[in-house]
Amino acid sequence: MNDAVSDAPFTPPLTYDIAIDHEATSSNRATPNIEDPRERDEGIRPHAIQERTSEAFCSILFDGSARPAAGEERTEPGYFSDLNLGQVFSSIAMGYEEYDLMPFFYEHLDDANTISYRQEVFRDLERKAVFEPIASFVQQMRDMRAHLKQSNALRYQYQKESWFVDATQIYYDAVVSLARALAPIELESEGLKRFQEHLSNYVQSPAFTSLGADVESVRKSLSEVRYLLRIKGLRVTVAKYDCEADYSAEVLATFERFKQGAAKDYRIGFHNPPDMDHVEANILGLVARLFPEVFSALDDYCARHRDYLDPTIRTFDREVHFYLSYLAHMGQFKSVGLRFCYPKVTRHSKEVFADDTFDLALANRLVPQGSVVCNDFLLSGPERIIVVSGPNQGGKTTFARMFGQLHHLASIGCPVPGRRAQLYLYDKLFAQFEQEEDLANMRGKLEDDLVRIRDVLNEATASSVVVLNEIFTSTTLKDSVFLGMKLMERLIELDLLCVFVTFVEELASLGPTTVSMMSTVVPENPAVRTYKVVRKPADGLAYALAIADKYGLTYGALKKRIAP
Predict the structure, then answer these.
(1) What are the distances in angstroms from CA 160 to CA 23, 27, 30, 142, 155?
(2) Which residues contact 211 (CB under 8 A, 6 or more apart)?
(3) CA 341: distance to chain centroid?
(4) Which residues pair with 388 in a beta bridge?
(5) Options 3.30.1370.10, 3.40.640.10, 3.40.50.300, 1.10.10.10; CATH of 336-562
(6) What is the per-residue pLDDT across 370-402, written as a single tens digit (0 to 9) for each?
(7) What is the pLDDT of residues 174-225, one digit of tens each?
(8) Chain centroid to CA 78
């Protein structure tokens, strides 16, 4: 508010005594709270702009009717903890907390078209020309929300309104910049094409063009406000600027001839908090009285554009972070040579496979330290169940988790770890891993295993995926074989896809529906695990002696250590 000279008629100066009641000033009068217009998807209010723009685009995540109903609760699935998917998605969503992304990662899709819809968006966003303007846009939207938050935190009317004006300017510039950047790009995904069309229509809508014209007008008017301050004791006089001399410039000009070169600056910097103090607020209140038209226009602008944010833009800003956060997470693995692919997802065939794939949770821990071991699997024809056996600490549990992770990631439309993959579009995913006894339920470990697997079998269908890891380990080998056989019979009868990690090797050869895979060791040194799980008949070798020898726990070694 300091550039232009006012041509308005003479207005007498106004005074302010610093010692007056600071809380009873005009600059602190009550004003409607300027709310952050960003709201959860379920709570979007009706908006005039939405009525004038394209109805074709609703969501960058959901294709048409696949979008969940408004207000639908999405909670973490029960299998997340066993498959370490909670760790995976918490790591992905870290730094994006304001967007509440976790519900998007919870709910698997049962619609192949929506999965394809998301995969196409991912492919487009992997193009630098598409990614960069969208990344810039969401950063500007974050800046806009920071301005709105600051506006709500301030106490004085005109300062609140100033931050609000800045927020709308950032929003307007962000939308215009994104529309211009995307306009010449040939997009491949239906989702981004529809958004591109919505954006093109929106920037030409009367409401948006009015916002741009109004924000330019109000900022121009404010920049032309110029005034004088006369301070004498505790009295401050505010008057309109009338071509008076700028004494600061005259002093600097006078002493310019004595300047001998660069000198050390001894001036002390003062902290300048965003909130005005009461003196500044009262001075601004007097300025507003000197320029009533300008500040009345400011009040009017804030009232008319309170709901300036287009709900579809707001939804896009949140939902696109599902893609941006996952791509950023992928980047750390791709930078060390690990591969991701877009799996073929189908419910018409139970032939599933993946090449050079890995456990995403484990890889997240291993990448900073060393290499990640990749594995393959294949089920074809009548094959439905992979029975994994082999030595302990050989990667069996990791393999089982990987199988479940891949199916969930594919079911939410994400690229999956691996060079290529085809996965099944399941109706339900179940995981049962070994758990410690829970004293609260008063059940023994075996009883708890039986109760949990009964619940799985009661809910599972032929379209389900089941991941089982080391159950029935708390009983005798004879009972484990008996229970394992009964369980396998039921799984085969259901005709579902399953990975079953077990020490009972008899379960690996129950007919054409079962496939035996084993974790392997280095042949020359059985104590060293390769962490490769390969397709081979179970051999019943646990290599316990090699482990005991590695840690000096063989009979001979112990005898030497305790000998007198």
Answers:
(1) 17, 11, 11, 18, 7
(2) 168, 172, 305, 308
(3) 20
(4) 501, 517
(5) 3.40.50.300
(6) 789 999 999 999 999 999 998 888 899 999 999
(7) 999 999 999 999 999 999 999 999 999 999 999 999 999 999 999 999 999 9
(8) 21
